[in-house]
Specification:
Keywords: Membrane, Transmembrane, Transmembrane helix. The chain is mostly helical and 136 residues long. The chain has one domain. It contains two helices and no strands. Helix 1 runs antiparallel to helix 2. The protein is rod-shaped, with a radius of gyration of 32 Å. The two termini are 26 Å apart.
Length: 136
Amino acid sequence: MKWVPWLGAVLLVAGLGAGVLSGVALSRASETRERIDSSLQRASELISEAETVKETDPAKYEELLAEARRSTNFAELDQQEYFTQSDGGWYLAGGAGAGVIGGTVLLAVYRFRIVPRQRMAQWQAPQQPGMWPPAV
């Protein structure tokens, strides 16, 4: 049973490491979300600009619409990346929580259940007069 505190410590450290990694993944997902918003904002600006020149300059209109489509395609790709990063971050956060809780429980069980029993096994009750001799 000497492996219990080591396993608890490993789980605790692994949980903390996974927590750091989940923070990094969720931070990256936040940056990707900002990039999606800026791509969609740019696409909407290009479409509104294209609508203003639709009648006067059809070539520029087509060019602006093509640029807006390109911007929305980037936003779609970023959306897939965002979902991957976000899901990965939340899965890592769940694993981190499980690791920290599991490690803490193992350490607590070892500390408060196993060690006191070992101490009690070494402790001998005082003999009272008139009692039967202890069974050996």
